[in-house]
Amino acid sequence: MDRYEFKLKPIGNAAIEAYKTLRTNLMFGSGGEKPNVITVSSSLPGEGKSSTSLFLAISFAQLGQKVLLIDADMRKPGENPANEKGLSYLLEKHLTVEDAICSTNYENLHFLPSGLPTQNPVELFSRDRFSVMLKYLVEDLHYDKVVIDTPSAGSFIDGAVIAAQTDGTLLVAKCGSTDAGSLMRTKQQLESLSVRIIGVVLNVMKKGEYGRCSTYKRYVRYYAKKSKWL
Ligand SMILES: Nc1ncnc2c1ncn2[C@@H]1O[C@H](COP(=O)(O)OP(=O)(O)OP(=O)(O)O)[C@@H](O)[C@H]1O
Ligand SMILES: [Mg+2]
Q: Which helix (H) or strand (E) holds 203?
């Protein structure tokens, strides 16, 4: 198994606590089955999907759970861009899952890089091979949690196609930047594909800034009420 090294900038205790709270809500919140395969999505680029995916995955791994982080952003692969061993090759049938997964510098956390960019990510994610792979990861390779980082749902349909095949989707909104209209359009688009939205993460919220994010409050509460996860 290849090894991948995540190099993280320090994020501070408040952020670490926030990810622990998110993890706890996902694990113990009431309201239906607990999600094992989680998509992380957002309306627009740069709102914090990749960061949230990574920190959430690390947070689960620190509890001793066997976790796989998948970089499914084939539009702009963030990790290992030059490596052929990744999801795109795997879905094109050139690789086995076992050959593509890397260990990491975090105990219990494995990583599946996106691989080389491909012209047809939507088709790749729409084929049976993707959903069969997700089932195999949970049932045969015994991952407790699979966290999938996606491209922004407002720009590409890939994220919605992926989300529709997973147990639940977290929507990331960037405080002071994401507008409520974009968030609602993304929510509606995802729900039209029967995606289960399990919560909203307000990212880049500084201390004392909750008031400034009041536009989102009702959406956060709305999701919370509906999904009972946050
Ligand atoms: N909570 C945060 N505090 C400070 N910086 C952050 C935070 N979350 C993300 N960032 C920074 O913002 C930038 C964009 O974050 P990230 O790559 O996670 O977004 P993304 O939604 O995955 O973007 P893209 O749509 O381009 O894939 C990065 O430089 C990241 O380090
Ligand atoms: Mg990203």
A: strand 197-203
